[in-house]
Amino acid sequence: MRKTILGVAIAAVAAAAALGGYLVLGHRSDGGQGVAAFREARAFAVSGLLKQVEGPYSLLLGDSQMERLSLPTLCGHPAVNGAIAGTRTAGLRAVAGWIVLPRPPDAIVVTIGTNDLTERQRAGNPEATEHFRTEIRALFAELAPRAHAVVATPIPPFDSSRPGVTRFYDVAAAATYSGIIEEECRRAGCRFVDAFADLRNPAGLARSPDGVHLGLGSHSRDRVAARLEAAACPGVAARTL
After folding, report:
1. Which structural domains are found in the chain, ordered by start?
2. d(Cα 42, Cα 164) in Å, to the nearest integer?
3. What percentage of the chain has pLDDT greater than the value 90?
4. How many whole angstroms separate alpha carbon 177 and alpha carbon 193?
5. CA distances from 135 to 90, 152, 175, 180, 193 (A)
6. pLDDT digits (tens, 9 = 90+) for 167-195
7. Largest Cα–Cα distance of the chain, in whole Å?
8. How far is it, in rounded angstroms, from Cα 134 to Cα 137?
9. pLDDT band at 240 (very low <50, low <70, confident <90, very high)
10. Which residues pair with 81 in a beta bridge?
11. pLDDT class for 239, splitting at 50, 70, 90?
């Protein structure tokens, strides 16, 4: 079992690296068509990884925050990481729709929203918040029937004191967007947990490499995993907070 989990984790990292290169080329060559093709290719790769998993498993979905979490297991079973750096909620919906599940996962875990908060998406767009709500509502409605449980998190913390963070992100809207995620998650019957609660204090923010992404050492990663497991599998969670 341990070898199977390790093998799936290594395969997931290799697939993400290869497809990351494809994404760069796609952006350079044909813009939007390249991004769409990457999403479909990513879903194809993740679907292939899922076929290699025997028994129970979890599926991790989201943006670079989830991609960097690097959790090989959740609730004692393999966790396949289908996250994509740079994606927004609409893009995640597309990828999730293309992923073929061999059987329902024990849990689908979702961390999304950071890239929906970029100034490029928010500035001069009074409909941005309601558009985000529409996409999040649709995402949870589509995921809920496909898994035994869907777990969602709020948007990870920003450190607004870091250079460039408030220039590129509408940090002030993060709490509103996280509130929308919680509301729409609960509407769909999903489970909401702030897996990053321990990283929102000054010490946690100081560990962030850039003020946007989580600063994850082995201890903080275990704490995040423990919070996710408490929501995903409260009866069998093995890690402690």
Report:
1. 55-232 (3.40.50.1110)
2. 30
3. 79
4. 15
5. 6, 14, 17, 11, 20
6. 999 999 999 999 999 999 999 999 999 99
7. 52
8. 5
9. low
10. 60
11. low
Residue the block writes with tokens 């998993």: 53
What phi and psi values does residue 102 have, to the nearest 5 degrees?
-65, -25
Both structure tokens of 57: 């498993």
pLDDT at 107 over 60: yes
Enter the pTM of the model: 0.85
Residue 137: left if φ>0, alpha if ψ -120 to 50, beta else—which one?
Answer: alpha
Q: Average pLDDT over the chain, rounded to whole?
A: 88
What integer pLDDT is reported at residue 236 of this predicted model?
73
pLDDT value at residue 180: 99
Q: Exposed e or buried b for every residue in 145-154, given b needs 16+ CB within 10 A?
A: eebebbbbbb
CB atoms under 10 Å from CB of 238, counted, come to 11
Q: Which residues contact 111 (CB under 8 A, 6 or more apart)?
A: 61, 62, 63, 65, 66, 69, 83, 152, 153, 155, 156, 195
Mean per-residue pLDDT for 45-55?
96
Name every residue whose Cβ is closer than 8 Å to that of residue 158 and which is 6 or more positions away in sequence.
165, 169, 171, 174, 211, 212
What's the rounded Cα separation, in Å, for the pair 91 and 80? 18
Strands 73-74 and 77-81, by their bridges, are antiparallel
Q: Do residues 101 and 151 lie in contact, with contact meaning Cβ atoms separated by under 8 Å?
A: no
